[in-house]
Amino acid sequence: MKKHPCLYLGLLAGVVAITANTLVLKAAPLMAVNAESGGLLKLVLLHTTPVLPAGPLPVVKAEGFKLLFHYLTGLGMVGLYVLVFEPRLPGNGWVKGGLFSLLPWVLNGFVVLPLLGQGLAGGHVLTAGGMAYFFVANAVFGLVLGGLYAYLRQQQAAAGV
Q1: What is the rounded distance in angstroms from the CA atom of residue 24 to the CA atom of residue 4?
Q2: Is 95 helix (H, G, I), strand (E, B) or coil?
Q3: Is the confidence at residue 57, as pLDDT, over 70?
Q4: Contact (Cβ atoms closer than 8 angstroms) between residue 47 and residue 57
Q5: CA distances from 105 to 37, 119, 133, 137, 142 (A)
Q6: 72 FRET partner, CA 20 to 30 A, in 9, 120, 138, 145?
Q7: What does each C-alpha distance from 54 to 40, 60, 64, 69, 138 come to in angstroms?
């Protein structure tokens, strides 16, 4: 398997982007907005809890595990961006990241949440403001990822690395 020379830059940009996304999502309750349902983890638990031994369930439902799951899922998205989408998307880093941010939003809103019975974009459990806020949180992830990754690549090229 060929190593991607810029994957580590993507991971660095990705951790910053996931952190920005996480902070935006965690700030939602401060504005009385319900914008996140933890849909993917809920979907995974829905299908694995019946086969998991009872011992790990408290750990899986702990806030620290939820945060770890969020970061790992985000890093998977970062890998997709760096290896598949970034080389093919048009525009500068900000544009590429903004376009890419639609992927996790669409996957969550049109696949995960409906499979949980929460409706399209979580419409059965989220207000229009919550849905818009979740869209913005995904946009923050993509914009930070795309912009920072492009900047790091430019710095790397300027350094002749």
Answers
A1: 30
A2: helix
A3: no
A4: no
A5: 13, 14, 11, 9, 10
A6: 120
A7: 20, 10, 18, 19, 33
